[in-house]
Design a protein that fits this description.
6 helices; Pyruvate-ferredoxin Oxidoreductase, domain 3; alpha/beta
Length: 192
Protein backbone atom coordinates (compact mmCIF):
# COMPACT_ATOMS: atom_id res chain seq x y z
CA UNK A 1 0.00 0.00 0.00
CA UNK A 2 1.61 3.26 -1.05
CA UNK A 3 -1.35 5.57 -1.33
CA UNK A 4 -3.48 7.15 1.35
CA UNK A 5 -6.50 4.98 2.15
CA UNK A 6 -9.50 6.59 3.81
CA UNK A 7 -12.17 4.41 5.43
CA UNK A 8 -15.57 5.35 6.82
CA UNK A 9 -17.34 3.02 9.26
CA UNK A 10 -21.13 3.09 9.66
CA UNK A 11 -22.65 1.37 12.65
CA UNK A 12 -24.99 1.78 15.55
CA UNK A 13 -23.97 2.59 19.09
CA UNK A 14 -22.78 -0.59 20.78
CA UNK A 15 -21.80 -2.52 17.63
CA UNK A 16 -18.13 -1.63 17.83
CA UNK A 17 -17.51 0.62 14.83
CA UNK A 18 -15.40 2.97 16.97
CA UNK A 19 -13.54 0.04 18.53
CA UNK A 20 -12.88 -1.54 15.12
CA UNK A 21 -11.58 1.75 13.76
CA UNK A 22 -9.26 2.23 16.73
CA UNK A 23 -8.05 -1.39 16.61
CA UNK A 24 -7.32 -1.10 12.88
CA UNK A 25 -5.36 2.05 13.67
CA UNK A 26 -3.31 0.37 16.41
CA UNK A 27 -2.46 -2.59 14.18
CA UNK A 28 -1.56 -0.41 11.19
CA UNK A 29 0.64 1.74 13.43
CA UNK A 30 2.33 -1.36 14.87
CA UNK A 31 3.10 -2.35 11.26
CA UNK A 32 4.90 0.97 10.73
CA UNK A 33 2.20 2.87 8.85
CA UNK A 34 0.97 6.38 9.52
CA UNK A 35 -2.54 6.28 10.91
CA UNK A 36 -5.47 8.35 12.02
CA UNK A 37 -8.47 6.72 13.71
CA UNK A 38 -11.32 8.76 15.08
CA UNK A 39 -15.07 8.61 15.75
CA UNK A 40 -17.72 11.19 15.03
CA UNK A 41 -20.68 11.34 17.32
CA UNK A 42 -22.66 13.65 19.46
CA UNK A 43 -24.76 12.60 22.44
CA UNK A 44 -24.98 8.99 21.30
CA UNK A 45 -27.05 6.26 22.75
CA UNK A 46 -27.16 2.53 22.24
CA UNK A 47 -28.56 1.80 18.78
CA UNK A 48 -28.14 5.30 17.32
CA UNK A 49 -26.18 5.66 14.04
CA UNK A 50 -22.48 6.40 14.57
CA UNK A 51 -19.51 7.02 12.31
CA UNK A 52 -15.85 6.20 12.72
CA UNK A 53 -12.95 6.84 10.36
CA UNK A 54 -9.45 5.67 9.46
CA UNK A 55 -6.68 7.15 7.38
CA UNK A 56 -3.77 4.81 6.64
CA UNK A 57 -0.67 5.65 4.62
CA UNK A 58 2.96 4.68 4.21
CA UNK A 59 3.78 8.32 3.63
CA UNK A 60 3.45 11.37 5.84
CA UNK A 61 -0.11 12.55 6.44
CA UNK A 62 -0.80 16.24 6.36
CA UNK A 63 -4.60 16.02 6.45
CA UNK A 64 -6.21 16.61 9.81
CA UNK A 65 -9.84 17.01 8.87
CA UNK A 66 -13.00 15.05 8.26
CA UNK A 67 -12.81 12.32 5.64
CA UNK A 68 -14.73 13.61 2.67
CA UNK A 69 -14.31 10.94 0.00
CA UNK A 70 -13.60 7.49 1.49
CA UNK A 71 -12.08 4.76 -0.64
CA UNK A 72 -13.76 2.11 1.52
CA UNK A 73 -17.04 2.21 3.45
CA UNK A 74 -17.80 -0.48 6.05
CA UNK A 75 -21.41 -0.94 7.17
CA UNK A 76 -21.82 -2.92 10.40
CA UNK A 77 -25.62 -2.76 10.43
CA UNK A 78 -27.51 -3.43 7.19
CA UNK A 79 -30.59 -1.58 8.46
CA UNK A 80 -28.56 1.61 8.00
CA UNK A 81 -28.85 1.12 4.23
CA UNK A 82 -32.49 2.23 4.62
CA UNK A 83 -31.78 5.38 6.64
CA UNK A 84 -28.27 6.61 5.72
CA UNK A 85 -26.67 7.23 2.34
CA UNK A 86 -23.64 5.05 2.95
CA UNK A 87 -22.35 5.79 -0.56
CA UNK A 88 -22.26 9.55 0.01
CA UNK A 89 -19.05 10.96 -1.49
CA UNK A 90 -17.62 7.47 -2.09
CA UNK A 91 -14.37 7.85 -4.03
CA UNK A 92 -14.56 6.84 -7.70
CA UNK A 93 -14.12 3.08 -7.82
CA UNK A 94 -14.51 2.92 -4.05
CA UNK A 95 -15.69 -0.19 -2.24
CA UNK A 96 -18.59 -0.80 0.13
CA UNK A 97 -18.47 -3.73 2.56
CA UNK A 98 -21.78 -4.63 4.21
CA UNK A 99 -22.53 -6.96 7.11
CA UNK A 100 -25.43 -8.95 5.64
CA UNK A 101 -26.47 -12.41 4.58
CA UNK A 102 -27.55 -11.04 1.20
CA UNK A 103 -25.50 -11.50 -1.97
CA UNK A 104 -23.30 -8.60 -3.14
CA UNK A 105 -25.26 -8.23 -6.39
CA UNK A 106 -28.51 -7.49 -4.52
CA UNK A 107 -26.85 -4.84 -2.33
CA UNK A 108 -24.99 -3.37 -5.32
CA UNK A 109 -28.25 -2.86 -7.20
CA UNK A 110 -29.86 -1.32 -4.12
CA UNK A 111 -26.96 1.13 -3.79
CA UNK A 112 -26.67 1.84 -7.53
CA UNK A 113 -23.00 0.87 -7.72
CA UNK A 114 -20.93 -0.93 -10.34
CA UNK A 115 -19.83 -4.58 -10.28
CA UNK A 116 -16.74 -5.03 -8.15
CA UNK A 117 -17.66 -2.25 -5.70
CA UNK A 118 -19.83 -4.14 -3.21
CA UNK A 119 -18.81 -6.93 -0.86
CA UNK A 120 -20.82 -8.73 1.79
CA UNK A 121 -20.01 -10.76 4.88
CA UNK A 122 -22.49 -12.26 7.34
CA UNK A 123 -20.57 -10.97 10.36
CA UNK A 124 -23.55 -11.37 12.68
CA UNK A 125 -23.75 -15.10 11.96
CA UNK A 126 -20.00 -15.56 12.18
CA UNK A 127 -19.70 -13.73 15.50
CA UNK A 128 -22.71 -15.52 16.96
CA UNK A 129 -21.21 -18.90 16.04
CA UNK A 130 -17.58 -18.14 16.97
CA UNK A 131 -17.84 -15.61 19.81
CA UNK A 132 -21.23 -16.58 21.19
CA UNK A 133 -22.80 -13.15 20.74
CA UNK A 134 -23.40 -10.64 17.96
CA UNK A 135 -20.23 -8.55 17.76
CA UNK A 136 -19.84 -7.81 14.03
CA UNK A 137 -16.78 -5.58 14.36
CA UNK A 138 -14.14 -8.33 14.57
CA UNK A 139 -15.32 -10.29 11.53
CA UNK A 140 -15.79 -7.06 9.57
CA UNK A 141 -12.17 -6.12 10.33
CA UNK A 142 -11.08 -9.39 8.72
CA UNK A 143 -13.34 -8.85 5.72
CA UNK A 144 -12.06 -5.28 5.36
CA UNK A 145 -8.42 -6.32 5.31
CA UNK A 146 -9.20 -8.96 2.66
CA UNK A 147 -11.37 -6.72 0.45
CA UNK A 148 -9.54 -3.45 0.93
CA UNK A 149 -6.03 -4.83 0.73
CA UNK A 150 -5.03 -2.22 3.31
CA UNK A 151 -2.65 -4.47 5.29
CA UNK A 152 -1.00 -7.83 4.63
CA UNK A 153 -3.43 -10.43 6.01
CA UNK A 154 -0.84 -12.57 7.80
CA UNK A 155 0.81 -9.59 9.51
CA UNK A 156 -2.60 -8.11 10.38
CA UNK A 157 -3.76 -11.38 11.93
CA UNK A 158 -0.56 -11.70 13.96
CA UNK A 159 -0.93 -8.21 15.40
CA UNK A 160 -4.63 -8.76 16.13
CA UNK A 161 -3.73 -11.93 18.01
CA UNK A 162 -1.18 -9.96 20.07
CA UNK A 163 -3.76 -7.24 20.85
CA UNK A 164 -6.49 -9.69 21.87
CA UNK A 165 -4.07 -11.86 23.88
CA UNK A 166 -2.93 -8.79 25.79
CA UNK A 167 -6.43 -7.40 26.35
CA UNK A 168 -8.08 -10.72 27.22
CA UNK A 169 -5.12 -12.54 28.83
CA UNK A 170 -7.37 -14.15 31.43
CA UNK A 171 -9.99 -15.19 28.86
CA UNK A 172 -8.35 -17.40 26.23
CA UNK A 173 -11.77 -18.44 24.92
CA UNK A 174 -12.48 -14.81 23.98
CA UNK A 175 -9.18 -14.60 22.10
CA UNK A 176 -9.86 -17.88 20.29
CA UNK A 177 -13.43 -16.92 19.40
CA UNK A 178 -12.42 -13.55 17.99
CA UNK A 179 -9.55 -15.03 15.97
CA UNK A 180 -11.86 -17.72 14.58
CA UNK A 181 -14.38 -15.02 13.64
CA UNK A 182 -11.65 -13.01 11.95
CA UNK A 183 -10.40 -16.02 9.98
CA UNK A 184 -13.89 -17.03 8.87
CA UNK A 185 -14.69 -13.54 7.64
CA UNK A 186 -11.50 -13.46 5.60
CA UNK A 187 -12.59 -16.73 3.98
CA UNK A 188 -16.31 -16.02 3.66
CA UNK A 189 -16.46 -12.41 2.47
CA UNK A 190 -18.13 -12.28 -0.95
CA UNK A 191 -17.82 -10.00 -3.94
CA UNK A 192 -18.98 -10.10 -7.53
Amino acid sequence: MSELVEIRWHGRGGQGSKTASLLLGVVASDLGLNVQAFPEYGPERMGAPVLAFNRISEGKMTLHCQIESPKIVVVLDPTLLEVVDVTENLAPGGKVLVNTNQKPEKIRKKLGLEPGQVFTCDANKISREEIGAVFPNTPMLGALVKVGNVLPIDQFRGKIEEEFSSKFSSKPEVVEGNLNALDRAIQEVQGE
